[in-house]
Design goal:
The chain is mostly helical. The chain has 14 helices and no strands. Helix content is about 80%, strand content about 0%.
Length: about 300
């Protein structure tokens, strides 16, 4: 087991270096000059432009800029924005909000998606099974911003159950509606994936053997059907955490949430490559850590991996 964990951790290093190199190259090759954009229509004096380029190493070759960027990561110095604000301060302000939003969305899609999928899989062809299939297909087909506007009007305005917007200092209650919107599409996929996996495992040999041994319905469902059905679901959930954080830009815009999505959009608009790369690197780290956690959960869910 220790060897398995160590091998997975070692695999993270080249993935991180390759991802950051690709991201930095894409930002570096982006058309336009951010220094010229700072001056607007009037422009900046040539001396000021040279000073800004030297300060942010924009006059250096690509490989030098990338190595300086890696050095900043390992020394916890992510640089400053064009306005003189520390990038680490920008991330510290935006990341917790988006991370809380993504975790709430992940919990909603996991609990309700697995629960509904399990019941639908156990009752194949029934009314509940048909209803949740129609619901999941509807959620997949309807865009996220449409779901957000509908919930704002119905739940927020007409019923008054939840706040319409979250604001700068959101709490759990104000994030509940945007988390539901963010989780809507992923909930549909988790539901359908769980349902299919449960139906496949119900006809497996190990389930028939467990029933022949005299185990109760709840024991067969919990120990054998659900546990084995969760393996593909856990894979999806692990990858979806990073997707939820990066895809929160639309939801954050609808509900006026000042998180990573809005901050990243503003940085791209202003041409602040340092902030863009730093925020994107954080999202890459979330992807890597989440997938590492999925690999470790595999060993807990599937003994064949643990004893291999």
């Amino acid at each position: 087991m220790r060897w398995y964990i160590g091998r997975r951790i070692l695999q993270v290093i080249p993935v991180f270096l390759g991802a950051t190199l690709l991201l930095y190259a894409l930002v570096f090759l982006r058309p336009g000059d951010p220094v010229l954009a700072l001056g607007g229509e009037r422009g900046l004096p040539e001396a000021v432009q040279e000073q800004i380029r030297a300060e942010f190493h924009l006059d250096e070759p690509f490989i030098v800029q990338y190595l300086l960027y890696l050095k900043g990561i390992f020394t916890f110095d992510l640089g400053v924005t064009f306005t003189g604000r520390e990038v680490s301060e920008v991330i510290a302000q935006a990341l917790p909000v988006t991370f809380q939003l993504a975790l709430m969305a992940l919990a909603i899609e996991a609990v309700f998606g697995i629960g509904f999928g399990l019941v639908a899989g156990m009752r194949k062809g029934g009314l509940f099974d048909s209803s949740v299939l129609v619901l999941s297909l509807l959620l997949i087909a309807v865009p996220t911003f449409v779901v957000g506007f509908v919930l704002q009007i119905v739940v927020g305005v007409n019923l008054g159950w939840l706040p319409v917007t979250a604001g700068r200092d959101p709490d759990v209650v104000s994030l509940l509606m945007p988390a539901t919107v963010l989780a809507a599409t992923s909930f549909a996929y988790v539901l359908r994936l769980t349902r299919t996996s449960v139906q496949e495992n119900l006809s497996a040999d190990f389930v028939r053997t467990a029933r022949a041994k005299g185990l109760s319905r709840s024991q067969v469902t919990g120990r054998h059907v659900l546990r084995n059905s969760l393996i593909p679901v856990v894979t999806f959930l692990g990858a979806d955490l990073g997707q939820l954080m990066s895809g929160a830009i639309v939801t954050e815009g609808i509900f006026n949430i000042h998180g990573v999505g809005g901050t990243l959009f503003d940085a791209i608009t202003r041409g602040e490559n340092v902030t863009v790369v730093a925020l994107t690197t954080v999202l890459v780290l979330v992807y890597i850590v989440a997938n590492l956690a999925v690999d470790l959960l595999y060993a807990a869910l599937d003994p064949r991996i643990r004893y291999a």
